[in-house]
Amino acid sequence: MVKYLNISSGNIANIILTILIIPVNIYCEEWVKIGVLGLFHPREVIVTSQTEIPLDVRLDNNEILFMGNNDLHVKYINGKIKIEIGGIGKDYMVSKYTASLNISAPSGFWDVAEFTITIPGKMTRKYSGKLDILRGDDELVLINQVPLERAVEIITFSEMKGKKNRQLLSAFSIVVRSFLKSGIEQHPNDPYDFCDNTHCQLYFGEMEAVYPSLLLEETRGMVLTYEDEIIPPFYCHSCGGHTASSRVVWGMDYPFIIPVNCPYCQESNENQWEAFLPLRQVETLAGSYIQGVAIEEDPASGVVKNVVFTNDGDVTTLRGDQLRIRIGSHLGWDKVLSNRYSIELVGDSLKFKGKGKGHCLGMCLYGSSALSEMGRNYAEILNYYFPNAIIKNTQN
Ligand SMILES: [Zn+2]
Ligand SMILES: [Zn+2]
Predict the structure, then answer these.
(1) 285 C-alpha to center of ligand 2: Å?
(2) Distance from C-alpha of 396 to C-alpha of 330, rounded to nearest angstrom
(3) Smallest Cα–Cα separation from 368: which of 355, 392, 391, 386?
(4) Which end of the chain is less enclosed by CB atoms within 10 A, N or C?
(5) 108 CB-near residues (< 8 Å, 6+ apart)
(6) d(Cα 20, Cα 27) in Å, to the nearest integer?
(7) Structural domain includes residue 11
(8) Do residue 135 and residue 170 come from a single domain?
(9) In angstroms, rounded to a whole number, what is the distance separating the alpha carbons of residues 95 and 82?
(10) Which ligand number lies closest to the CA of residue 367?
(11) Are residues 139 and 155 in the same domain?
(12) How far apart are the CA of 303 and the centre of ligand 2, in A?
């Protein structure tokens, strides 16, 4: 015989319904794995709960330790992970070695934990969701598992720090969601989907300033598509006057990247920049001595297609973006800011002179901000930079 809940019995029925409903909502939601704080190469971290919810720590042998509201100290020691919970003056003390650990709220209906990660002497950031800690190459690998929609909000506000225009933030949140859902393989050899720095998208965790999530409510679930597939809509800080094709910059075709004229980023701080780099250092990066240098420019966008170095009869050709990335990763990202530049040999140096910041592909963020201030809405902004992409709502 089936027993029915007596709805009129008020509180008890509500509690039962809540218990039944919450796990369904949580488990239906899409989650994403983001590698965090990797730039710091951490070998020691402290995890602290930020709410009254006691946290659980699951070890590689499936043993579950009750962390409660104590601090969890995690250290990388000789290829192993050592964990300590509690300590002097605390009511609970555990010291163990493990190959990996997962920190979460107790399984069931409180599945989203809130906690801080501290790298001693460096910084503390707040996160929500779950945290996996794995052994990396001589360091700890920290992976924050977080509901995708929360990741969209955090990335939007991390990248758009200080921006308030609702249409700009809405447009950008669609770009972020599309990037996360497009299936793009940014880290095929890592145990996470995306990192938290400019290689993927900035992700600073739950920030001090609490942005109202409702700001992005209108566009929740929306993505950019091309031929019914969700696209990764690439974006740059400022394009310098005209966006480029992916063929020019990366040597490969993305049909949803259409070069467009962008007179809206002329006021950007990076509209004029210069860098002098020692010839010897560039020679090392180019793998050749340099006696002469010439630029092959894309006539449509003005972006550098190839850089041609000559030495006696030898010719070394690098794509403009390839040279920028090599200089950035070896000499610093504050030197050659974009793919729109000229090069001149000046004594023992190469003088780079350019405009814009970033790869100059897809959405120009400075230009988008200017368009939003001119009254354009999120759809008009996205349509400007991705003219053949279509906005769809994945929640319908
Ligand atoms: Zn990345
Ligand atoms: Zn622009």
Answers:
(1) 29
(2) 46
(3) 386
(4) N
(5) 23
(6) 12
(7) no
(8) no
(9) 7
(10) 2
(11) no
(12) 12
What ligand has the least distance to the C-alpha of 368?
2
Same domain, residue pair 50 and 88: yes
Distance 277 CA to ligand 2 centre (A): 26
**Ligand 1 center to 192 CA (angstroms):** 9
Give the ligand with the smallest distance to the CA of 202.
1
Domain-ending residue, one of 97, 116, 146: 146
| pLDDT tens per residue across all 396 residues of the chain | 333 333 333 333 333 333 333 343 444 679 999 999 999 999 999 999 888 777 889 999 989 888 777 889 999 998 999 999 876 565 668 889 999 999 998 876 556 888 999 999 999 999 999 999 999 999 999 999 999 999 999 999 999 988 889 999 999 999 999 999 999 999 999 999 999 998 899 999 987 555 666 778 889 999 999 999 999 999 999 999 999 999 999 999 999 999 999 999 999 888 899 999 999 999 999 999 999 999 999 999 999 999 999 999 899 999 999 999 999 989 998 999 999 999 999 999 999 999 999 999 999 999 999 999 999 999 999 999 999 999 999 886
Any domain includes 49: yes
213: which DSSP letter? G
- Asked if residue 24 is part of any domain, the answer here is no
DSSP letters, 99-110, are SEEEEESPTTT-
| Domain encompassing residue 67 | 31-146
Q: Amino acid letter at 306?
A: N
Q: Say yes or no: 171 and 125 in one domain.
A: no
Distance 214 CA to ligand 1 centre (A): 28
Q: Which two tokens stand for residue 125?
A: 């950031």
Ligand 1 geometric centre to CA of 131 (Å)? 18
Distance (angstroms) between ligand 2 centre and the Cα of 215 equals 25
Regarding whether 299 and 222 lie in a shared domain, the answer is no
Q: Which of 88, 116, 146 is the last residue of a domain?
A: 146
CA of 36 to the centre of ligand 1 (A): 10
* Count of structural domains within the chain: 3
Residues 241 and 369 in one domain: yes
Centre of ligand 1 from the C-alpha of residue 40, in Å: 14
Are 252 and 333 in a shared domain? no
Let me know: does 390 contact 309? Beta carbons within 8 Å.
no
Q: Compute, in angstroms, the gap from residue 159 CA to the centroid of ligand 2.
A: 16
From the CA of 188, the nearest ligand is 1
| Nearest ligand atom owner, CA of 185 | 1
